[in-house]
Task: inverse folding
């Protein structure tokens, strides 16, 4: 997150309102990739996500003079992106089939646990294996995680992107995405569970047991 | 608390949103169950891994297009 400008949001906001180009480009560099990721959670392609973000920027610039800074600038900006993406996503879904996947799946497949006939009902049949530490930073591992995120249902993908990739707090995430705290947490839970599961399958398959 | 129940509560736990009584049960379960300790480690590793994602480049041309947008906006507002 390289910038020559003050990271203080109110200074940034003032600079933007004064038409400071360096401030604007710094904001674009800082937030642009995250905005793209968020848009991509709701639309069918990278190209459409780029259009959504361009559209969102138009909305942001239109609104910036009236923006009073009562909520954080970035939260407000991401909210505009989320709303723009959702509208576009809805319009798209009329022509693009959208598979929600199993939105309500449990965190871990039920057959990983002992059944009611077993003395230790609900216990692991066999313990999960720790992820191999030396492989966590591999590009391949990262790809597995990214693929898993890309395969998530839109709202789960949205939340894990804003919380865990962009690093927004729970409250900021709720404000940006228009979610209740509980709703946000449930979506985050499901998203993380799926990504963990994908990583586990990857390591099991690759490492052999 | 069973392992099957615990894995559904992990996010609430990490978010500090589990009621105190459940936190006690949760922690007690962890002292007895290596499987669940490993599971939580996996979740933490997942979060860290996801957090390290950074394809932090804009598509080519995007920055220029936005700067043009910004200049148009400045002109339009006078």
Result:
């Amino acid at each position: 997150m390289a910038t020559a400008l003050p990271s203080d949001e109110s200074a940034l906001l003032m600079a933007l309102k004064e038409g400071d180009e360096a401030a604007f480009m710094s904001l674009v560099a800082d937030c642009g990739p995250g905005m793209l990721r968020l848009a991509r959670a709701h639309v069918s392609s990278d190209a459409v996500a780029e259009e959504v973000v361009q559209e969102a920027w138009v909305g942001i610039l239109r609104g910036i003079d009236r923006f009073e800074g009562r909520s954080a600038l970035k939260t407000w900006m991401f909210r505009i992106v989320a709303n723009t993406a959702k509208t576009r996503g809805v319009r798209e879904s009329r022509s693009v089939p959208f598979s929600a996947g199993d939105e309500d799946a449990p965190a871990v497949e039920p057959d990983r646990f002992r059944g009611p006939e077993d003395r230790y009902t609900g216990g692991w049949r066999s313990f999960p294996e720790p992820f191999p530490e030396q492989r966590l930073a591999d590009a391949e591992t990262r790809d597995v995680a990214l693929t898993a995120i890309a395969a998530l249902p839109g709202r789960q993908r949205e939340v894990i992107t804003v919380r865990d990739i962009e690093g927004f707090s729970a409250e900021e995430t709720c404000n940006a995405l228009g979610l209740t705290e509980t709703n946000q947490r449930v979506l985050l839970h499901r998203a993380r569970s799926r990504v963990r599961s994908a990583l586990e399958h990857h390591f099991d398959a690759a490492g052999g047991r | 608390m069973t392992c099957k129940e615990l894995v559904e509560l992990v996010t609430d736990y990490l978010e500090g949103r589990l009621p105190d009584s459940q936190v006690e049960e949760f922690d007690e379960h962890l002292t007895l169950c290596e499987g669940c300790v490993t599971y939580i480690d996996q979740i933490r590793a997942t979060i860290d891994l996801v957090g390290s994602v950074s394809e932090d480049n804009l598509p080519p041309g995007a920055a220029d297009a936005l700067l043009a947008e910004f200049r148009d906006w400045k002109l339009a507002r006078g």
About this structure: Chain B touches chain A through 46 residues (CB under 8 Å). Helices of chain B lie at 3-14, 20-32, 34-51, 62-77. The first helix of chain B runs from residue 3 to 14. The radius of gyration of chain B is 23 Å.
